[in-house]
Queue: 2 jobs
Job 1
Amino acid sequence: MTQIRHALSVTRDADFAAWYQEVISEAEMAEESGVRGCMVIKPWGYGIWERIQHLMDTRIKAAGVENCYFPLFIPLSYFAKEAEHVDGFAKEMAVVTHHRLIQDGKGGLIPDPEAKLEEPLIVRPTSETVIGQAMARWIQSWRDLPLLTNQWANVVRWEMRTRMFLRTSEFLWQEGHTAHADRDDAMKETLRALEMYRQVAEDDLAIPVVVGEKPENERFPGAVATYSIEAMMQDGKALQAGTSHYLGTGFAEAAGIRYQDKDGQQTLCHTTSWGVSTRMIGGLIMVHGDDDGLRVPPRVAPQQIVILPMLREDDGDETLLAYCEELRGKLAAQSALGEPIRVLLDKRAGKATQKRWTWVKKGVPLILEIGGRDAAGGQVSVLRRDRLWRNDGKVNFIAQGRDEFLVQAATELEDVQRALHGEAAERRNAQINRTITDLAGLEAFFAEDKRYPGWAEIAWSRPTGAALEAVVQTLKAHKLTIRNTPLDGAPVSGTCLFTGQPAVERIYVARAY
Amino acid sequence: MTQIRHALSVTRDADFAAWYQEVISEAEMAEESGVRGCMVIKPWGYGIWERIQHLMDTRIKAAGVENCYFPLFIPLSYFAKEAEHVDGFAKEMAVVTHHRLIQDGKGGLIPDPEAKLEEPLIVRPTSETVIGQAMARWIQSWRDLPLLTNQWANVVRWEMRTRMFLRTSEFLWQEGHTAHADRDDAMKETLRALEMYRQVAEDDLAIPVVVGEKPENERFPGAVATYSIEAMMQDGKALQAGTSHYLGTGFAEAAGIRYQDKDGQQTLCHTTSWGVSTRMIGGLIMVHGDDDGLRVPPRVAPQQIVILPMLREDDGDETLLAYCEELRGKLAAQSALGEPIRVLLDKRAGKATQKRWTWVKKGVPLILEIGGRDAAGGQVSVLRRDRLWRNDGKVNFIAQGRDEFLVQAATELEDVQRALHGEAAERRNAQINRTITDLAGLEAFFAEDKRYPGWAEIAWSRPTGAALEAVVQTLKAHKLTIRNTPLDGAPVSGTCLFTGQPAVERIYVARAY
């Protein structure tokens, strides 16, 4: 097999972290902004986020959840109560202390000492507290329940070590916040949101995930139960790609969220919260990217098909462009995966080969290159991004009749969507070790000197408190964490390899982002 | 004619400002957040914003403009240069000075003195500077032009006197920023954005607007030309509902936005920017609201039709709900105004009359009340929000056969859309005085002791510099401003009533928000 000359300078095998950065840069998804920890999300990266937003928001609305918008700033005093009551309260936040600038007399600007705020304002790290207060105002009786709200917003958590999409000081997300009459209804909503995240990951992003409950030590501070979807990256690490929390009545008590029930009694609400962020895009890259750049599943691709006319800056260009424009129109009039096909005719100046590699690196699912002779002969030259190379090391263009391609285009896109999921699922499943029964085995699995150790699925006794803390410390010594307990309800037997007690459930253990 | 008992406690005539606040509160659009100058946008208000976003974003994408996302924070030093060069640079901004909180030992939290930022960060009042710097990085050659970007984001400008939607410290908007090879292309884009705003205002929000150029003194600081759409509120004041700026090469020079032209020369780009904000919703209220609350044009209504079953909490409810659900399904399967009809079956507990008035105040275009007998007889009872009252002071419900209504529903919504625009245009046109030829006449028009003086359209000589400043001061004494010079190109004659020189164009003079 001939040596392939890949589009990126670094391969996943050589340096996964450097490869990740190169994909982001070469696919023109995002870049450093010059502001510490904040990124500029460029059109291709933002377009993917818009697709995720659209597909998730449709599900959010279908579930009867209503979007709202809450203030960017939260008064400092709102956090004082939380800091007292909640263990693990994070204090790394952006603090606004002044509301005006003045000239410093040396050509610069400084915060105006006369414009110091009486009470500092915090840039929201999450809107839990303000939304809780709003719910307390909005809910009077059982008729107002359930109250189902969601917000699409930017939030800020000061991070010392940042990595684009995965951990940035400012990030974009949605946060759902709901209030219910009782535990059952709140738990139903918690799991509905979790199932929605599973669908977005699996069906839209083509990322296979494990749906499960986080262990006690990994719960959202103050939550009664935290659930997550966990995805495996190509380096074998886990990424928590979305969480949903059942908060019990604790948050309702702190915010005073009460309702009059049918018997006239004042009763505390049960609340939930759930969120997914631009981190999901980091997962997309690390699951589907290859040594030629990104590969975007058609459902979340801002453009699904790009048509590249081989312009020659001569008289033939006009005929060629007309042919391409007609093709574009016919494709745009078709549907694939339940929506009109998103197709771009890239007429920009530049060499066709160079433009091709730009789109390969961006990971557009299908590329059509069309020259003057193709136009004359009613042909197209089709490149599937997930089948980029032939065995002989050449780019895998397939010549096809234009009408034949038009008939198959939707099916082809659906096939790319399925193929990317299949490939990721196969890889993940091959990298889950289900045979480990003792600590030595666990250590050996993760100690092996290979790049992709994957995950271990093991049986345990679900210890709590100090016993759990001992497990956490044992794992920490190997840089491992418990990801979650899968909700699939598969039977479990044997003993817990940490406590020696009878196992009651399984957990996934992995290194994680 | 019988006295009508309106749904609001304050009428427009009695107290326009109090009426405005009551509409916002009773239509459940927004409320004070407890954070100075920031509002909570509630589902109905946010739903309208989502509709505006959707309809405008479709046009933005169709024009080839790509959405990006830029950082919330901008380093202080970025503003120092702007403060030096730009007259009218606004300094009321939120300043972040610390990145961590610590406990103060007295149960409270304070900014950690150890976590003071080396350089303060400003919460973006607009993204002009960061986007300019990004453009300087992204643009190398003429092949990269035009560069067309847009951002949907929250921005903060510290305001001492706030009013919901119209002037808030934090608001939501879109900001378009584009770079071009020459003046002509930049001007074309400036006017394309302006025309897009006109369409959104007229076609979507049913708000008639005057499209024109702002006078020199009202230009965006640093702009070569600023254009606006101006709408007339029901109190006769003007509201600037959107602006588009041609920035020349000044901003490109400050940020270093240059390109290599086809001859290999480094050349400055010509840039534009354009924006519309949640302020538009304030305009919607003040143009279409009446003494019973809001009236939302169908195109931007989060729900266009609400079905209210008259539930009796007895055995008949099941049949009634099934009838309503079938009706809902049939309506949702239809299209009106180019999109699937948005219809809600409101099954919440509560008295039907109370629920009706909730929806009247929210201004949903069509309300269907359906009781058990209607269901049995295949009937519906239809209320058009824009024809709420009969002459005898009763609510204007019209009984109709269900099938007959289904056939007409789309047409009815289209008619409401048209009727609201027609009503607003008629009122506005009646309140524009085009007969004023001298200053005394202008003073008399605005001095008249009536609630709705409206606008004056007058001819002037387009003075600049000190001569313009004299006009501005004259108008200011009457709390008047020049809104814009209409671009309709109608001929003009006579002399300027300010300068006595030959008139060259017309301007609108008005009180404004």
Job 2
Amino acid sequence: MSVDIVRNGGITEITLNRPAKRNAMTDAMWSALEEALTDLRETRVLVITGAGGSFCGGSDVSGLLDDPGSLPDRIAVSNRCVLAMRELPVPTIAKVGGPAAGAGANLALACDFVLAAEDAYFAQLFVRRGLSVDSGASWLLPRLVGERRARELCLLGDRVGAPSALDMGMITRVVPADGLDGAVTELAERLHDLSPAALAGTKRMLNQTWQTTFAEALNAEAANQVEVIQSPEAHTAINAFNVRRS
Amino acid sequence: MSVDIVRNGGITEITLNRPAKRNAMTDAMWSALEEALTDLRETRVLVITGAGGSFCGGSDVSGLLDDPGSLPDRIAVSNRCVLAMRELPVPTIAKVGGPAAGAGANLALACDFVLAAEDAYFAQLFVRRGLSVDSGASWLLPRLVGERRARELCLLGDRVGAPSALDMGMITRVVPADGLDGAVTELAERLHDLSPAALAGTKRMLNQTWQTTFAEALNAEAANQVEVIQSPEAHTAINAFNVRRS
Amino acid sequence: MSVDIVRNGGITEITLNRPAKRNAMTDAMWSALEEALTDLRETRVLVITGAGGSFCGGSDVSGLLDDPGSLPDRIAVSNRCVLAMRELPVPTIAKVGGPAAGAGANLALACDFVLAAEDAYFAQLFVRRGLSVDSGASWLLPRLVGERRARELCLLGDRVGAPSALDMGMITRVVPADGLDGAVTELAERLHDLSPAALAGTKRMLNQTWQTTFAEALNAEAANQVEVIQSPEAHTAINAFNVRRS
């Protein structure tokens, strides 16, 4: 039972590792994930995945009814992880090889890219356990798939297979199971070779978009660009572009 | 000319009943609907539909030009109905067997689920009558089908057939006309058997999502969950889940 | 190198005209466009397009690295154009016959309608030049195509062909290249014949939707309607409707 971290150059891969329980997260695992997400200094791209064919079955709820007073703390740590994932300044990729349920689904959906195996699925199964949605579902889903499908998914808790999830805009790409590692590596390497300042600036703008008017967004993007253009990568890329076009 | 209410266990069905005018709503009908929506104490699932093959042709505008000063009051009551429909703590299903136009379309679209017969259609026909959109169209459509399609629908007022409406995420499901009642009943019964506290909590979160940051949504969901988990349904469901998985 | 304006009755067509550089916009061209957008008094429908098969390659970045201090002013004028385009009270149509990249893509996407030739494409290529997104991309794309696809497009900068852009809700319609002029003319004439008050009122509501709660939107729509119904077009249209239905 662990959260494993492998660093490979600028690409960091975090693996949720409790395959006998579909990687359902104990409090200790959430804490380990939180720590991992706050120590990514050399990382340019983050990949998160699950061991043994599942992505993550959500928070482990065994023991919860014996100690209901623990709920606020338990939700707090999982929420901090989902929020930290979303606010990382580097691009994030969820590699989803199998079931992603409850908080496990939302941890994946909070990433910038979600690549899934053909037989993976996503389930907001809260309502099926008599619970209300949490871990960001009510915020993420309407913005990913629109109000109508978000309501269906949250109020019924049905599984959505990866191909349907792709059709409705919930995820980025579906690949055959044996091509998933390769597809994620290829994407991660591509992101690794882009300008970190440009990616961080773009993410910052995307992360705040729902709190801004169009005019405010234009101003924020302009202020952002004034900083980003001072990066060496911007100079190199603009020079290359101008040479190509001249 | 009436608004009919049938209660069947915890499932309440409201029928807009003026089939000779495609169930176009008079002021009296809007008032009757408003009253019905404020008296749903035993209801666990609400279904709304129209009599005689149409859903609802919108507000009856005959007489409006003879008495333009009545417009504010007339819009006020229809707006209160659309808002009440959206804010109900129980799941709502629009059963759309035929045309849903103007305020009639938006009354349906404000529901959590919209099931439509194959030859039903939706039309924001305001602009075709020289009017601006109302009854919530400008808010609902961008969040259902995205900015691009929302602008096309609102600025042109064209009919959208049920299959196209499904493709663009406006509605939940399309069924053959003779299967519509059965499909709605099946969905209503399924929702009836879920925890009212979980459904109400989930709706509350979905209804406020566009006013919150991601961090605020996570906090609100957590506070909500602390209440919902005290419901007997949560205990039963979590126990059943733990037994199944152990 | 120019921005050309042709007025034909109430339909104004603006052409970005620098075909040797894919209509990449110099500061002077942005200023000319800004002036054109503030002088549209007789216009009922605005069409914007590019000369020579391209739509617009974005802002011309040659010379930028020699004078980086000019960036704030350069972004300011292009931002004012994109914002003005979005806030025009008349319907706007982008006629996209070929590449639309960077600020050129977002100038098109800020229009109400986007009609594109089959081999046109859209590219948020900022990140490929080491730059952060600007010209409204971070605001427009999540609302057009959802969070997931917006992140992919902004963080990778790939081209999206017109058919894919249509599938994901980014644009309104795809037509064969030799039918593009005709399709735009037909749409422009149709919009020209609708009530300007109804169209302006509807656009005002759509433009402010992301800053309002549902209740606020209902109230704003009602207040708006009280004004719009006083227009002669509303009277004519409602009368015609009542005659038809009686």
